[in-house]
Specification:
Elements lengths: L3 H12 L7 E6 L5 E2 L9 E7 L2 E6 L4 E5 L5 E5 L9 E7 L4 E5 L6 E5 L4 H4 L14 H9 L5 H6 L9 H10 L13 H25 L32 E5 L2 E5 L6
Helix pairs in contact: 1-6, 3-6, 5-6
């Protein structure tokens, strides 16, 4: 699933296509893909933002479209809707002829229309953005003290920090030398401060990687150009100590870690 770096790379590319024109037509192939899409007609896209793993197309009049790419989605601008690929699931046609398309081979992505007044409640359970001033070591420490969850699950539930997913949570824990099954509340303030720093370091590197790796909608292989230390490397030598990387199941997902480095 696209995580914060991949979603941010999509947002940055969309911003390069501004200025925007009025939305004059729309369409979708499945009723479950988009909700309220026709309500965007007559609006102009004023800006493109990201909140966690969500893309926000901010519309004139204060409304916005929320897009979640799920597993294989991508959001692109093409010269005309007639040029869309067979895997496009929904689209917005602009007055200047261009089209914004949700290209999604597995058809899991979602779009929904919202009024500005809904934004706070819609994202009320999301934690601060990892590069924001609100995401401090003190915030992470306080959040960890309030949960009995294993630290990997704690990082992925989006309430401590928004946008962090399976790949980069595992990588951050490796670089912080923290076992993924360790109860978050039992970690020392010193270890959590280190974790705070490496979360930012890992995501910063991943953002640079994603600008290349997420070139084509739906064609991205997770962490394709990111120099993974443990993710997806079960049985391979740890790059730090040469012990064999292990895999465990956590929250229905695979977690990779070094049993020697991560205590």
């Amino acid at each position: 699933m696209p995580e914060l770096p991949e979603v941010e790379s999509v947002v940055l590319r969309l911003r390069q296509t501004a200025p925007w024109a009025k939305i004059v037509a729309c369409g979708q192939f499945r009723s479950t893909t988009a909700r309220g899409l026709k309500r965007a007609l007559g609006h102009t896209v004023d800006a493109v933002d990201r909140r966690g793993k969500n893309i926000l197309l901010r519309l004139s009049g204060g409304a916005f479209l929320r897009i979640h790419l799920k597993m294989t989605g991508g959001l692109n601008v093409i010269p005309g809707v007639n040029l869309r690929q067979s895997t496009v699931r929904a689209w917005l046609t602009l007055e200047d002829g261009r089209a914004i398309v949700l290209n999604d081979p597995r058809a899991l992505g979602r779009i929904s229309f919202h009024h500005a007044r809904e934004e706070r409640s819609l994202f009320a359970r999301l934690g601060p953005e990892p590069f924001s001033e609100a995401f401090t070591p003190e915030h992470l420490i306080a959040a960890a003290r309030r949960t009995a969850k294993p630290v990997k699950i704690f990082l992925m539930d989006q309430r401590a920090v928004a946008g962090l997913g399976n790949i980069y949570a595992a990588e951050a824990l490796f670089h912080a030398r923290i076992h993924p099954a360790a109860p978050a509340r039992q970690l020392s303030a010193k270890k959590l401060a280190v974790l705070h720093r490496v979360i930012r370091d890992v995501l910063e590197l991943a953002l640079r990687s994603a600008s290349v790796a997420y070139e084509d909608p739906g064609g991205f292989a997770e962490a394709e150009d990111f120099p993974v230390a443990v993710y997806g490397r079960e049985g391979e030598p740890c790059p730090r100590c040469a012990a064999r990387v292990r895999r465990i199941a956590q929250g229905g997902r695979s977690t990779y870690y070094c049993p020697k480095c991560q205590k």
